[in-house]
Amino acid sequence: MTDVKHREMAAGRWWELPIAEQLGHVGSEVSRALRWRSRDPRIAQGALERALELLDLTLDDPRHRQSVARLREIARAREVLIDFLAGPNRYHSTGSSLLRYFDAYAIAARRQQGA
Q: In degrees rounded to 5, what are phi and psi of residue 89?
């Protein structure tokens, strides 16, 4: 990563968060990218870049190395996100389908914090 946007997270703090919280944070950036997509593409692009950076940090998290299925899911989420926001949308995703996917993690993280 050449231009790190989440410096504190990249310094290792990200790896202290549970997977649900990690992907919930990604979802915040995805939501921002979707919201700004038609209004200001520059802001939307920045949010997409931050979301991808967080997904890359998640993929690099040593805790996830023990589960090929988990790594595959995170990598697929990254692929689908790029396909929808910057590609030909081969997977026929929608903004609402992406939000539902990432919101489920944010809700799970909130429940874990409340437990």
A: 60, 50
